[in-house]
Input
Amino acid sequence: MKVLVAVKRVVDHNVKVRVKADESGVELTNAKMSINPFCEIAIEEAVRLKEKGIATEIIAVSIGATQSQEQLRSALALGADRGILVETDAKTYPLQVAKILKGVAESEGASIILLGKQAIDDDNNQTGQMLSALMNASQGTFASEVVVNGDKVTVTREIDGGLQTVELSLPAIITTDLRLNEPRFPKLPNIMAAKKKPLDIKTPADFGVDMSSKLSTLKVVAPAERSAGVKVASVDELIDKLKNEAKVI
Ligand code: AMP
Output
């Protein structure tokens, strides 16, 4: 069973991002870039499926600029068998990414396609759902447990106030939630071995996808600065302030 994992290059989650002066986005010059954390969880799940003898091959795919090869190499160090970079300098939006992933999944004959539930840069939470619609395939989003039984996959989903368990037929699209697993750290020999693993370069046109989007970002602004807090001396003072200053009670 082939497993495809979508890996997005994003600004590292530890970086405190700054909005660009022209409000066109966040400043990425010299910022540390990493694999989107939810995609790391997706790779880990694929590797566990291979360790259980369920997955036979793990293919990591990224859509983006040439530098996304770094994140694909990291995915290879974590256990993916080969990588595919669909190279584009265009900003990637969920619909275009989903169309490309459909092309890759179908040409590879992937049975399970694992994605993060969201990319932490744009917070779209759309790509997996769009891919499922385009492929007319079943989806299990926000997965906190994945169990493969023959040609079915049972996915436990994290939903408001509880858990929902769904059974999917293959091919299935699964998006990962935070509690699905804890990704391993790559070992040095695996980092070295990853340099020799195959990494193919394709273009969106190879999958018949036009990267122009009907969506454009108008502006990005930083959240308003929080004003400094005050310490109150007593509960009575707090209640007084809430009533008469904040006027919330
Ligand atoms: P999003 O819908 O943008 O929040 O992204 C959800 C998931 O879709 C990510 O965690 C990735 O698994 C996948 N994805 C989104 N954009 C890309 C991309 N440019 N390349 C590879 N995978 C992507």
Summary: The chain has a mean pLDDT of 96. The pocket of adenosine monophosphate is lined by residues 6-8, 36, 38-39, 62-64, 92, 94, 97, 115-116, 118-119, 122, 124-127 (CB under 6 Å).
